[in-house]
Hints:
- By secondary structure, the protein is mainly α.
- It is 74% helix and 0% strand.
Amino acid sequence: MPKAVPGRRVARALDELASITDPLKRLEAVRGAREAAEALEARAVREARAAGATWGQIGSLYGVSKQAAQQRFRKSV
């Protein structure tokens, strides 16, 4: 059995969240997923910076300037 591509696993997980029928339970699950994704994002920024990535490179991934990336993620580093 081939390994699932990470993006597909995330898409399936989001589909599962969307299928929760109780709106408040769905909202709670989405909030938790967002917080987990933000924590993972912050860690990835720290690791990218530690590996030598520039703010310009990080900004480019987000389609923003290096200054905007730095302002957004400065607390993460």
